[in-house]
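Bug: token stream looks shifted between consecutive jobs. Job 1:
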Amino acid sequence: MSTPPASLELIALTKRYSADAVAVDALDLRIASGSYCCLLGPSGCGKTSTLRMIAGHETVTSGDVLLGQRNITHLPAAERGTAMMFQSYALFPHLSALDNVAFSLKMKGVGKAERSAQALALLERVSMRELAHRKPAELSGGQQQRVALARALIMQPQVLLLDEPLSALDPFLRGQMRAELRRWQQSLGLTFVHVTHSQEEAMALADLVVVMNQGRIEQSGSPRDIFNQPATEFVARFMGGHNLLDTPAGRVAVRIDRMQLSHAEMQSDLPGRTGQITHVEYQGAYVVLTLQPEGSGQEDLHISQTEAAYLAHPLQVNDSARASWHTPDAHLVKASPRPPTAA
């Protein structure tokens, strides 16, 4: 790549469709040059609208998008220094892989020999040179994704934008392509901004995870920080793998693999909840048990044990049990705003 990567900064970025419909609400975010950022959140949280505003496919209501030292907020998509890889890949069905990749150069008036050479070089980089003359219908989902990636890269962008690029793939291929995306990003040294609703995907790929909710950023940080120290109830719930509990210190999140489970009659000085086992789920290396605490209004607790730990002291559905935790493993969280109630 001859074009160096660039940092990306969003300053009070806002998208309003009407006075009451705010898709993105004054977002402030800085993505370091050459890093892999995942915008993560449920449907309707504003992540795709944010990506489309960065790409120039959605108008900005207010705020700014800075790419390196340039303000690109109102530039046409083709002049921004970004390229977008769409969820559907958006390949031309009547063109070969080679011609799909070379298409944007053709539109710029680049000669056939030169654009074909550049397209072949990129197809080789994504291990698709031997299939260069096949049309999209003759390619697998993973192969189509590689063609779409090569087509995005041929414009030598400073930032590559990816809109749920793995969602159309089966779970096995999704895992393979996830590893390839990360390898390509590190090899190219580009800044990647990747929209996903998959927590697993974001954790595996990102240097920076940005968890969004109702058009705002709930928390941003490394995957390890997001998972181990969720800032809000929403983040703890959305990331999964945590129990939320009310304690004298306040509302806390405790990882399910940090919970301990014992028979109800066993004595312990640790804080905990007593209740009844309602579900036991075998997950191979782990067993996840669900405890319904005594008393009304308390959320079910989930406890993850290694298979060996479970088999050493197995508990079954309807057994009385006690779930406990060490105080240092309880992380204080803030309340998250609730969505508005429909009239």
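Job 2, same session, no restart:
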Amino acid sequence: MTSNEFTRRDMLTVAAAGTGALAGGSFPMTPAAAAPAKEGPESMPTLMDLSLSVNGKEHRLSLDPRTTLLDALREHLHLTGTKKGCDHGQCGACTVHVDGRRVNSCLKLAVMAEGAEVTTIEGLGDPDRLHPMQQAFVEHDGYQCGYCTSGQIMSAVAMMKEPWGSDDADIREAMSGNICRCGAYQNILAAIRQVRHG
């Protein structure tokens, strides 16, 4: 039968037969579907040795070259203060500093940070000696659920070294890449204003 002779009735017959086979669990498997997944060196990702300097400490890692800086920090170095929010660079929860500049760590490959100094929220301050921005967030209740807080603080600290003005509109614009789903923006603004104005 040529493709021109394939009728609507033929199509319905084939569809009905396929549906019946699926329902009865007797759908024939193709050789490719039946074959087990290959296991061997060719199916394993190639690991890359690299050295990351994080919070002043050197770490030797062997990672899949596709590993993001965010996953290297959280999954391999167990620095879980940096949060995975959208994983698409849209929420700012994963903000860290690379050589003093704020970056979304979900968009940066770990191998790209080799030779740079990475700072996470864990390297900013500690409970006995908070960074001034951390202290301001505490004093002004600049958090609610707290999930975005580390990214907000890291972004705010980096912003202090950037050429933004000190009005509220400037601060809002500078922080626009960090989303707070709880809506604590006024408190965040007050905390940043306190540090910005010294």
